[in-house]
Write a structure and sequence with these properties.
Helix content is 71%, strand content 0%. It is built from 17 helices and no strands.
Amino acid sequence: MKKLNDRKKKINFEGIQILRMLLSLWIVLIHCCKIRNRILIILLINHPFHVPIFFIISFYFFYDKIYFRSLNKIKIRFERLLLPYIIFPIIILLLNNVFFVEVNLNSPYRKLTFFDFVNQLIFGFGIHDIFWFQFFVVFLSVFFLIIEFICKNNFLFILQLMLIICYVLQYLDIVYKYFIKFKEKSYRCFGTIIEIIPYTVTGFTLASYNLINKTNKSKEKKKIIFAIIIILFFIEKYNIIRSSRGFRYPGIDQNVGGICLIIFFSFITFTKKPIFLFIFKHITNYTGGVYYLHIVVMNILKKKISFIGNKTFLGGFIIYIICYFVCFIGMKIFGNTKLKNLFY
């Protein structure tokens, strides 16, 4: 059996880090910009691979920790997830209610309550709605941990059965028809779980084959890249994989597209070009912090800076840059403490 460190040290993280940065920028542009260009609508909106890929990557790198029962690394993962999940809503609640007249950090425009905070912790929305993603990562990480400790030998098989069941429920329209009756987000989030589980199980499955490492060593890279381009083209042009109705990211097409992009970016390496490695190592940092902060930065500046308020692309890029430098400063101040998880 390979040890955890033996597997990890052989993995090329450079291309994946670039992918994470682009996905983070993708999210900022979708949330902070009005997208009207036809090509950008196709690239950024019609096929929203960004969030599914983040789920796949998150659980890809969780697989070894859970499989080898590396308790210390599992603890670190939960610290990284839970500290922002708890602290940012508290900060937003306090700042929003103190400076309510000057600036609102939440939508709709109102004062926040303790009930909003409780709702935020339980379901991932109410104060900082983008933390629905964080909620599912935490919830499913705990859920999968329980399954792994109960039935280690059949752990991955059980999850793969769950993946199949989730897709059956989606494509038979059972999930959508049942949960669409509820107007409350808190009820609909249970329907969203059925859409998200396949991405997380995909991450585990790819990690069980050590896919990134194997594809990176492959001598057939050109053929693989050609196949990826063909698959993505047919998904876009001919819609060969029928999607299903849902609440956030239903269907198999986004899973297939996400896998293709992960493999494609895993081929990128700057090992033989140190200067490029140095540059990309720095500009691809703080993707988590950018995600946590971008809505807050937009809400603070939208009444003060017109191109941010008008949701222009320039405004979207400026928001990303501001978030990056806030995280850079935050890491300089808190980099030796657990609060670094707010910016990392």
